[in-house]
Fold each of these.
Amino acid sequence: PLRQIEARLRDSVFQRVHRNAIVNVNHVRKMTPLTSQRWLLTLSNGQEFIVSKRLASTVRQIVQW
């Protein structure tokens, strides 16, 4: 399960952004607001992920946008 992977990656450059996604924050190239509580992350390889409402504030602090 992703929860076990997340636990092994704790205190690293990886951050959970949604219940189905963990990303390397060093590869975030753009953070676009979709709504006041939802963000779209674009990675250096072009992949896009929606940040969940619950994790939005944490991700914004870590990515420092």
Amino acid sequence: DFCALEQYLKQVWFSSGFYHGIKAKVFGPEWFNSYNTAAPYGQNDGALWQGVGYNSSLTGGMRLEAFGFEGTFKPMVTFSQNKAFELLPSAYDSKYAYFWGYGGNVGIDLPQRFGDKSYFQFDWGDSEIRYTYHSFTVGFGTQSPWLGPAWLNPMLGSNNAGTYPKLDFGFRKTDFIVPKLGWNLGQFETRIWIAQLTESDYFDNNGKLDKNLMNGFNISYSPSFIPGLTIGATKVCLTRWGNNFLMYMNPFYSSNDIDGIGEDQKASIYVDWTFPKVGFEFYGEIGIDDYSYDFLVNPMHTLVYTVGFKKAFQKINSELIFEANNFEMSQDFQLQWEYMGYYAHAQILEGYTQRGQIIGAGTGYFGNSQYMSFKHYYKNGNITLFVHRYSNDMNYIYNQRFKADNKDSPSFKETYNKFYSKNRTTLAFGIDNSYIFNSNAILDMGICLNWIRNPYHELSIKDIFNYNFTCKLKYQF
């Protein structure tokens, strides 16, 4: 019988590496709703695109674990009313595509609007099949990896976009023991993955280049002799689907293939340091794009960064969160070519996206972002006040220098007058309240005002004020 099998497995050497039994867990359901009155707004919401009008997503599922295997089924269904709003002229085949590109030479699959109709969407969400033996793990599924310490805008992995199929393997948190001496130097965790990214329907008319290959590598280390500290590194490479799979599985592979099929490589290093006794956490991350250049001579080339902190105030049951992201182009591009930014590319024109949404930072992606929130916990929930300022397209403004010959020329003066202080900037003020009815049901409601300056850059004639209303109901078993 089953009990006899379980007792037998506990005595076998091989089977000591996994849990002997069966577990089941039910997720959700979780129902999210939002309404935007004048402009799209929202991030880190998976496959959902929160356009103008009513938006909704529903997710739920279950996980089954047995003898080292895990099966998770947690799909998402989304709806976007997708009401019309004024668009900037597209730079690509679709009239709904992003407004900025270099004549097909450098680009990104980032639609301003996803067509002209309301639409439903099915996404596999955090679904996967996984096997774990001791700390070694291998899995296939669609879970979106959140990479690095950032709270709002991770550089190289977030849930800002829909999920994508991937195969990964590596080690979960594992003690680093020195052989024979028995010293525990801390814990490390690592993962290598290979994934397929898909182009949206609102980019170009080339149906033969709709799939991209993404390979990723991440490692983190928490030394035992520095409590609370974690350091890590991430590397990703994009190329066309069907290219040399094994070559890109090598985490030390480094190139910038211009003459061949095309590559786009990115990397970051980060630190996260927590101080539990005083309730403080600091984190930072720096990243570079296409890093095949002289790092000693020009270490700031394509450099982007994130800094942030969290501070808990136990006496008043509150928490303060601050995060700043800078994704602007480095100053050396004033002497080089036009550069869209960290998430766009000349060889992989879709950029670092999945079905039209960036899989890294959801705001500030070609500019900068600053976010601060204050959360207060009370008996039956918490209430959060936040302010968020971000400019997504600073690089668009900076790149206009190519239209000017020199400071005394008419073209320079015309460019200055046309683009100075014309960067699209959003200032968001919001309040969110999460109320726990009982141990199972949670209701979350919020309202946010978006004040959008220069909504159409040099074409702007007035500001836009968008109201974002949200309501989320979650039932947990």
